[in-house]
Design a protein that fits this description.
By secondary structure, chain A is an all-alpha fold. Chain A is built from 12 helices and no strands. By secondary structure, chain B is mainly β. Chain B has a single domain, classed as Pectate Lyase C-like (3 Solenoid), CATH 2.160.20. Chain B has a 25-stranded parallel beta sheet that branches. Chain B has a 13-stranded parallel beta sheet with strand order 3-6-9-12-15-18-21-24-27-29-32-35-38, with no helix packed on it. The model of chain B has no long low-confidence stretch (mean pLDDT about 90). The chains are: A mainly alpha, B mainly beta.
């Protein structure tokens, strides 16, 4: 298993795209931190990277990589290796490369410029978001054999979580504004990993505004150690469940 | 010449003030006894010890001095010191445990309708009301440390409570744990200077119907609802710090029905709302720093002719909030860290106006739960398009000459 991970990891590193991704992240983070003497703008840039760029690159790159390595997977399958092992090492190899890219590109400037709870929180959440979207890529690539369709599903998935979902929430908020919906909203956010990530970072970044009345409800929930634990475990579920479904499908797939 | 001196000496013997000492080893053991013995102008010097004498009334002009902070204990039953004479000096006492009552307001030290009273260098601990000036004139309250341990608003009184007074000086006191740190009602021509008011249950400073006052260089930190200034004209608020007032009803500075006043050189940091204005007219907000607040300023549509100039807005979640579309106030030459314009002629002033009111601030005002979506990509997109083509936010809510660099404040 370790050998397969190593092969995939090295293969991805040879691929120049991931290096370019690291470089772009690094340039964005360093330049935004260097823009002003306080770290606020840099943190905001990295927040947008985590909520926007990281999911897009993770899901697209992983999906395309999986489609392109169909032959390699078939070759592996002809060897006496368990299917579970192959799929898991593919996932680990890809995730490792993506997380490393995020860590070097955005994580290091974060740790240097904002070495407090906000910075560490962003780093951890950025890594988790990478893992979530790699897992979703595995799911979307296993759903169909057609490459164009699979990539289409991946892009749709990203669009849904990054844009559409918040649009729906905004719509619901205003449709049901006469009802006490704060608690229901907390439940609804669990359905989007990006929202979970965003709210956790928000509670650290905009603490003064989040202490308003409804903010206090969110803070009471997400800000406590129980809420923190819960939202982290929800993010982990967002990694485990899509991957697990894809694993079952892969096991039973007729290749 | 010699005669003249003898005459002076003769009369000066009348002027001579006695010192009456009170203490366990002194001839006079009781403070009440000492006060009754004292003549006008005498000094009552109280030595270290604990004195439980119920309500002590000072009804003649004396200097009431404590040495080594003698403790005056109200045993949770009495008002401790009642001052019912002009020009009394109270200095160097530790006053503790005044009574609690809902009809009267038992205090540690209360001044009844008198003038030129000086209360300084005292320590007040665990009292219902701290220092109470009722209808006083020209009084000085200085260097007192006032601490209480209130849990609920109705169970505790104010630290320094002034009612219907004039020409007061409240200087360098430290107040914490009361309902309102400093309370002013119908107090005019007074100054509040260099006080530190923290961790009070309601307001750090509560200010009503008190015209022509100034408060300068005070620190108001971590109070339940910040500072409230209401129904007042001609207030000067200079160089104060308003910090860490968090909660939905908490403001760094809450202004209601204020006219013709100045807010200059203050620093607002980490409040839910830095300044909240309601029905406020002709105020000049100048050279203040707004830093890391939820809302730097909330200006309700009922405010008219206020000028917000030369301030720094740095790292606030929202720069502005409002509840309507009417804008009758002026914003000019402020520094906004969210400004994204350019300065082609390099004169330090941005070439395009800045809209400090974001779409999302309006959305949250209408529907506070929407805060959940803050910094979402979708919201950022909406905000950007609103900035280009204002439709929901009032299009005249603008700073026409935003600064490119922050002011050195």
């Amino acid at each position: 298993m370790n050998r397969i991970i190593k092969i995939i990891f090295l293969d991805i590193l040879k691929n120049k795209i991931i290096l370019a991704y690291t470089l772009i992240l690094a340039i964005l983070s360093w330049s935004s931190f260097g823009l002003e003497d306080n770290s606020a703008k840099g943190l905001l840039t990295i927040l947008n990277i985590i909520l926007f760029t990281v999911p897009l690159v993770s899901i697209l790159f992983a999906t395309i990589y999986l489609y392109n390595s169909t032959e390699f997977i078939e070759l592996l399958l002809s060897q006496p290796i368990k299917r579970k092992k192959i799929w898991l090492s593919l996932f680990l190899g890809l995730s490792l490369a993506m997380v490393l890219a995020f860590f070097i590109g955005a994580g290091i400037p974060l740790l240097i410029n904002a070495p407090d709870s906000v910075g560490i929180m962003m780093l951890v959440i950025g890594c988790l978001i990478t893992l979530v979207f790699v897992a979703l890529a595995f799911l979307s690539s296993i759903l169909t054999r057609d490459k164009a369709k699979g990539i289409g599903i991946a892009i749709m998935g990203w669009l849904y979580f990054a844009l559409l979902f918040d649009g729906i929430i905004l719509y619901l908020l205003f449709q049901f504004s006469d009802y006490p919906i704060e608690k229901a909203m907390i439940v609804v956010t669990a359905f989007s990993p990006i929202d979970l990530a965003r709210i956790q970072i928000l509670l650290h970044l905009d603490v003064s505004a989040m202490m308003g009345y409804t903010g206090a409800i969110f803070k009471d929930f997400f800000g406590t150690s129980l809420g923190l634990l819960l939202s982290f475990s929800l993010l982990c579920l967002w990694i485990i469940i899509p991957f697990f479904i894809s694993l079952i499908k892969f096991k039973n797939k007729d290749l | 010449m010699k005669k003249l001196i003898y005459i002076f000496l003769f009369f000066s013997s009348f002027l001579h003030a006695h010192v009456i000492e009170v203490g366990a080893n002194k001839p006079v053991k009781s403070i009440k006894k000492a006060i009754s013995l004292a003549k006008i102008g005498d000094t009552v010097l109280v030595h270290k010890g604990v004195y439980r004498e119920g309500n002590i009334v000072i009804d003649k002009r004396i200097v009431f001095l404590g040495k080594g902070y003698p403790v005056l204990d109200g045993q949770k039953k009495y008002e401790v010191l009642s001052i019912k004479a002009d020009s009394v000096v109270v200095q160097g006492f530790k006053v503790i445990k005044s009574g609690y009552a809902s009809l009267e307001d038992p205090c540690a030290i209360k001044v009844y309708n008198k003038s030129h009273v000086i209360i300084q260098n005292n320590i007040l601990d665990d009292n219902f009301f701290g220092i109470y000036i009722q209808n006083g004139k020209n009084c000085l309250i200085k260097n007192n440390t006032i601490v209480a341990y209130g849990k609920e608003e109705q169970q505790i009184g104010n630290g320094i409570h002034c009612w219907k007074s004039e020409n007061l000086q409240i200087i360098a006191n430290t107040i914490s744990g009361h309902r309102d740190g400093i309370y002013f009602e119908f107090v005019t021509n007074s100054v509040i200077w260099r006080n530190i008011s923290t961790n009070n249950i309601r307001y750090g400073l509560h200010f009503m119907f008190s015209n022509d006052d100034a408060y300068i260089t005070n620190i108001f930190k971590n109070n339940g609802a910040g500072v409230a200034v209401m129904f007042t004209k001609n207030v000067k608020m200079f160089n104060n710090y308003f910090e860490e007032n968090w909660g939905d009803g908490a403001y760094g500075l809450f202004l209601k029905e204020i006219t013709d006043s100045h807010i200059i050189g203050n620093k607002f940091s980490k409040n839910t709302s830095g300044i909240h204005m309601e029905g406020t007219n002709r105020i000049r907000v100048e050279k203040n720093v707004f830093e890391a607040n939820g809302w730097a300023m909330k200006i309700q549509a009922s405010c008219v002719d206020n000028e917000i100039v030369n301030n720094n807005f740095i790292g606030n979640t929202f720069d502005m909030g409002t509840n309507g579309s009417l804008v009758l106030n002026k914003f000019d030459t402020n520094y906004w860290d969210k400004y994204e314009g350019y300065d082609l002629d390099k004169n330090g002033v941005g070439d395009v106006p800045y809209h400090p009111l974001s779409l999302f601030a309006v959305l949250v005002e209408n529907n506070p739960s929407a805060m959940l979506l803050f910094r979402s990509f979708m919201i950022t997109l909406l905000d950007k398009s609103e900035k280009v083509l204002p439709s929901i936010t009032p299009d005249n809510f603008i700073d026409n000459s935003p600064l490119m660099h922050s002011l050195p404040l």
